[in-house]
Amino acid sequence: MGRWIIVSNRLPFSYDAKQKILKPSSGGLVTAIRGIKSREKTLWVGAVPEEVPMTKVRSLKDPNGIKYDGPKISNEMYEKYYNGFSNDVLWPMLHYESNRIKYKAENYEAYKKVNQEFAKFLIDKIKDDDIVWIHDFHLFLLPKLLKQKKKNVKVGFFLHVPWPSSETYRQLTPRREILNALLHADLIGFHDYSYLRHFVNTVYHFLGINSTQMEIRSAFNKTELGVFPVSIDTDDFHKKSMSKKTVKEIEKYALDGEMKKILGVDRLDYTKGIDLKLEAFEQFLIDYPEFVGKVQFIQVAVPSRTDVPEYAELKRSIESKVGEINGKFGTLNYSPVKYIFNSVSTHELMALYRTSHVLFVASKRDGMNLVCLEYVAAQKGLDPGVVLLSEFAGAISTLSHAISINPFNINATSKRIYQAMTMTQNERLERYQIMYDYLKNYNASNWAESFIAALKMHQVEKKVEVKKIASVEDVKKITKKYKDRPTVLFLDYDGTLAPIVDDPESAIIDQKIYQIVKDLSLKPMTQVVIVSGRGEAFLKKQFKGINCYHAYEHGALFFDYQTKKLRNLISSNKDKWYFKAIDIIRDYTKRTPGSFFEKKNYAITWHHRNTTNDYGEFQARKLAQDLSATFSHLPVSVIVGKKVVEIKAIEANKGRFAEWFMERYGSHAEFSLAVGDDRTDEDLFEVVNKFGATVKVGEFDKTHAGYYVEEQSKVAPLLKSLF
Predict the structure, then answer these.
(1) Are residues 608 and 664 both part of a single domain?
(2) Which end of the chain has fewer CB atoms surrounding its CB within 10 Å, N or C?
C-alpha cells in the first residue's frame, strides 16, 4: 500500500530559535490532513529553513502518525522564491492586481531552483504506488519536474487561490512554462467552478489545446479537472465557540451588550477589501442615521508583510479612514469603528463570532475565505448572525444563503448592510440552518478525502510511442506483412486523400492520388475501403471507376461496389434529435459570420474554417456544449474536429464500422492498414490496432495511431510504396 505525500511550501510548524523548538501551526490544510481517517501512511514535505535542524523535523511526533521532511532551502534563496516571485508576481497576478507585479528575472530563477530542489528531494523518496498531492502556486513547476522522472506516480495539484481570466494571465512573463508544468499533473483541483473555467480558457489561448471542463489532453498527459471547495472542522469550531473559555472572553470584554456589532476579520492585504468595507460602513451611517450610536464595526486586521512599503501604506490608509469615520460620527461614549491591528486568540475570535450580528466579507478577490465558514459554525442556534459575503470570494458558491454583495458598489453594499441589520430572527435562522447543515455534512476532512479519492481513481495513461514515417524504408517495416497477403486498407478522405480546404466541395483528389488508390484496388487480395464523414454523392463522384467500398457519414451508410447496393447501418430514430439540432446549428450559423453547415442523412456538420479564428473556436466549443447538453439523453455523439463541430447518430462511428466490416468482408484478411487525420479516425485506429497498423496524418499529438506522417502531402508516397 502506497503513502500519501502532501507537498506544501512550508511545513505546518514555526521555529522558535530561542527555545530551539518547533511549534505546531494551524490552518485549513493542517486541519484537513490531520482529520483524514485512513490507514495509509502520510508524509508531509515542505521547505526547511537553513537554521532548523533536520533531526528536529524528522523526529516530530504526530498523534495522527504523519511524518515530516523536506529539502533544506537557504534563507536568501527562499526570500527570492517566496517574496520575490510568489508574493510579488504570482499573488497579485492571480488576484487581478497586475499593477502590483514586480517581476525580476533573478527571482524567477530562484523560484525554478526551489521547485527543482523539491523535485530532487521527492524523486529520491517516492515510489510508483505513492500518491503525491501538491498545494498552491508556490509549486507550479513541480508536477512536470516529478513526472519527467516518475511517470507512473499519481500527482495531484490543488490551487488555494483564484485562477484569473486568460486576459489577466497573459501579463505573466513565464506563462507558457507554468501552464505546461501544471498539465503534467493527473488531477488539478479548484475551489470554484469559475476558476476551473478560466483555467481551461487560459490553456486554450496560450497552448492551443481544446478541452472539456472535465479534462485536458495534452501531448504528454491526460489531466483531469475538478472542483473541490475547501471546508473547516465544523464540530471543532462549534465546540470552541460554546466552550467556557469563550464565555469568559465574552464576559471579560462585555461583548454581549446592547450595541449591535458588524465584524470583519482579515489578514491585512490589498485583496481583502478592508478599505471598501470602511467606505460602505460610512455610507451606511449616512444613509441610515438612525443606526448611529447603535451599531459598531469591529475590524480585526491581522498583520502581514509589515516590512513591505505598499503594505505599510495600506495600513496607514486604513487607519486614516478609521480616524475619519470616528471623527465624523463618534461621540464621547461611542466609536463607530473599533480597529484591531493584531492577531486575536482562538477564544477571543470565537467570542467575536458569537456576539456579532453581521460578518462582513468584502474581498476584492479571494480563493475561498474560511472566516465566513467559521462564523457560521460558531453561531448560537436560536439567534444566529448574518453573513455579508463578496461575490468575488470562492465561498459564495458554497454559502448559498449568505447575502451576496459587490464590494465595489458602495451604495448597494450600504443597502445590504441595512438588510442584514434589520433581518427578522426567523429569516436569519432559516438562512443559518441551511448553511450550517452544509458545513456539518461537508467538513475539511471530507474535502481532503474527496480530492484524494478522485486522484486514486485517475488512470495514469501509459505514453504510447508514435513513430514518424520518414522514408520508404520505414513504410516497408510497417507493411512487411502486406506483401502477397489478404489485406484491408481503410482510408479517410478529407485531410488524408485530399487536403483540407475552405470550401468542402473543392476538396477534390488529384489525379496522382486517384491513380494510386485505383492501383491498390487492383492488387490481388486487397480490399480498399474509403471511410469518411462525407455523403454518398460526393464520394461516388471522386472514386468513379475504382472498385472500392465506401462508408459514408463515418459508417452510417455502406456501399458495396460489387452488388451496387447501399446499406443503412443505423437502427436508432433520428427524428428525436435531427430537426432540433438543425435549429440550434442554424442559430449559431446566423451569429457566426463565415460559418455554414451541411445536412447529411444521419449527421449535421457545422464548419467554421472561414470565421475569425478565436471567435470561431469559441463558438465551436459553445455549440458543442449546447448540443451535448440538449441531447445527452439521446443516442447521438458530438464531435469537435478540425474547424468543425458535428452531431451524428451514435452508431455512426468509424471504429464500430471497421469491426462490422471485418466480421463480414474482411474475416480472411491477415493484415490491415488505416490512415486518417482527425478525431473521428481515432475510433478507427483503436480497432485496427488489434490486427494491423495505423497512421496519423498531421502534426503529432495525442493519438492511438502507431505511426504518423507530418502532412497530407506525404500520404501519396506512403500509399505508393505499398505496391
Answers:
(1) no
(2) N
Is 455 inside any structural domain? no
Q: Are residues 635 and 658 in the same domain?
A: no
Residue whose C-alpha is closest to residue 381's, from 442, 438, 430, 439: 430
State how far Cα 705 lies from the chain centre: 28
Planar angle of CA 471, 475, 477, nearest 5 degrees: 115
The closest of 132, 138, 131, 182 to 160, measured between CA atoms, is 138
Tens digits of residue pLDDT in 106-156: 999 999 999 999 999 999 999 989 999 999 999 999 999 999 999 999 999
Grid cell digits, residue 413: 453594499
- Note whether 73 and 146 are within 8 A (CB): no
The rounded distance, in Å, linking the Cα atoms of 605 and 599 is 7
CATH of the domain at 635: 3.30.70.1020
Q: Do residues 397 and 196 lie in contact, with contact meaning Cβ atoms separated by under 8 Å?
A: no
* Distance separating alpha carbons of residues 687 and 673, to the nearest angstrom: 11
Domain region containing 288: 234-441
Query: What is the full DSSP assignment across 469-532?
Result: --SHHHHHHHSTTTTTS-EEEEE--BTTTB---SSGGG-PPPHHHHHHHHHHHHSTTEEEEEE-
The number of beta carbons lying within 10 Å of the beta carbon of residue 265 is 24
Residue 309 has which C-alpha cell? 512599503
Q: Distance (Å, rounded) from C-alpha 107 to C-alpha 293? A: 51
> Looking at the annotation, which residues are catalytic?
492
CA separation for the pair 720, 489 (Å, rounded): 13
Helix (H, G, I), strand (E, B) or coil at 134: strand
Residue 593 domain flag: yes
Q: How many structural domains is the chain composed of?
A: 4
Helix (H) or strand (E) holding 109: helix 105-123
CA atoms within 13 A on the CB side of 391: 9
String of DSSP letters for 342-410: S---HHHHHHHHHH-SEEEE--SSBS--SHHHHHHHHS-SSS--EEEEETTBGGGGT-TTSEEE-TT-H
Q: How many residues are listed for the chain in this entry? A: 723
Residues 193 and 242 grouped into a single domain: no
Sequence-ordered alpha helix ranges (H) in 601-699: 613-630, 654-664, 679-688
- Per-residue pLDDT tens over the stretch 196-245: 999 999 998 888 887 777 889 887 788 999 889 999 999 999 999 999 99
451 within domain boundaries: no
Asked if residue 670 and residue 634 are part of one domain, the reply reads no
**pTM of structure:** 0.69
Report the percentage of the chain scoring pLDDT > 70. Answer: 94
- Strands across the sheet with 644-649, in order? 596-599, 603-607, 644-649, 636-640
Q: 669 in a domain, yes or no? A: yes
Do residue 330 and residue 276 come from a single domain? yes
Which amino acid would we find at residue 603?
A
Quick one: how far is CA 473 from the chain centroid? 44
- Residue ending a domain, among 609, 627, 649, is 649
Q: In angstroms, rounded to a whole number, what is the distance separating the alpha carbons of residues 155 and 177?
A: 18
